[in-house]
From TrEMBL:
Taxonomy of the source species: Bacteria, Bacillati, Actinomycetota, Actinomycetes, Pseudonocardiales
Enzyme class (EC, first level): transferase
UniProt-recorded name of the protein: histidine kinase
Domain Signal transduction histidine kinase subgroup 3 dimerisation and phosphoacceptor: 124-186
Catalytic activity annotation: ATP + protein L-histidine = ADP + protein N-phospho-L-histidine
SUPFAM superfamilies, alphabetized: ATPase domain of HSP90 chaperone/DNA topoisomerase II/histidine kinase
The keyword Membrane is annotated on this UniProt entry: yes
Transmembrane residue ranges: 54-72, 350-371
Amino acid sequence: MRNRRADLIWAPLLVLSAGLSLSQVLLFDGGGWLSLPMVVLAYPVGRRMASLPLALWVFTAVASAGLVLAFWRTSDPLADWLSVVSVEFALSVLPWWAGRYRRLRAEQRERERGIVAEQARLRERARIARDMHDSLGHELALIALHGGALELAADLADEQRRTAGELRACAVRATHRLHEIVQVLGSADAAADRQPADESIDDLVRRATAAGLRVRLRHDGPVPGWSPMVSQAAHRVVQESLTNAARHAPGASVTVTLARQDDGTRVEVANDPAERPGGGAGSGQGLIGLDERVRLAGGRLVAGARPDGGWAVTAVLPDGGLAGTPPRRSEAGPPAFELGVSRRQTRRRLLQTAALPLGGGLALLAVLPVMQALTVARTGLADERYETLRPGQPRSDVEWLLPPHDIGRAPEVIDMPPLPAGASCVYYQVGDDLLDVGSDVYQLCFVDDVLVSKDRLERA
């Protein structure tokens, strides 16, 4: 509905752009100053108007109106109509097509950015699934172990021993089912980016320092009582931020801050400006994944440049359990498939858009012979008939030798001879055969309905 309203707003501008071709050719002499307004109007319409059929209708209507006006205005409609169509094509259709091409490319890039962002979110959810597998799998293994120990205890009754055995079997089955679910929801990439089991942020900072990164950790307040998922989200924020600092700001010092505040705990990783060029701009998928993980943990994430030229990533995470929006089930298909569909749709729409100027050109080629035949039949004077004309003949004697119509106003010629005094002149195309017709014209001048001169003129 929104695109339809926008199309109705922009369509009059396209009509004006294409319609100026009629004014430039049929109503003005040398109206070249209208070229710029036509281009300026057509290009933004292509960028904003979504409907291809509506644009096709506008261009076709203007070309048809040009044909009608050409037949009405002159006896040589072919030249005028071709001028209308040529001006419309060059100054309205092509700028509109360029604008529409830019629009379709921008829409494709926007769709692909959304698909890539969704892919990053899905990967982050896969990492979360693997993390849950590690923590829950460990707890289930302990339950199975304790159940097995109870099953072997000598002081238990048979009923209690059977119950302990069922407890152990249930824990084993739950572990297997958890593993199957993670295999379905997870990915091979998720397993490659896991931290060591039960690694704290302090351990992570020590490990980064040992690897050569200039990083220090500041605690502002007591250690928060995070749930496992929130703790893993905090660890992931610090881990990804340290990786980005090492990659994009080599040599810069990094400060990791854990600070308590009213709505939770602030986890901030800030680095100074890079001392030497880094690894270039990233894809942004890491931050998208961090934002998804923090959101699923009930927190919020902010990342951006600092005034001193450094970079900071700040996450505010709730204490205790989850407090945020529950995860929404993604309705998108596999990202790679969606990327392929998006690109195929864009290619199809580009081909449809290109079909307009291409189809218009082919239609013009098909119409040209018909228009040429009509023009020759209406205004063409055969050479042999021209040779039989003699000055001094009455108009009534030569009328039957002439075509039914002349070409109208005097054409622009290279060397116009002086006109006899009081003469009225008419002009005809040279030749009456479709293949032999040329650009020259015959000039016949009459005084008091008597032929006084005849000349063959070369068009300028």
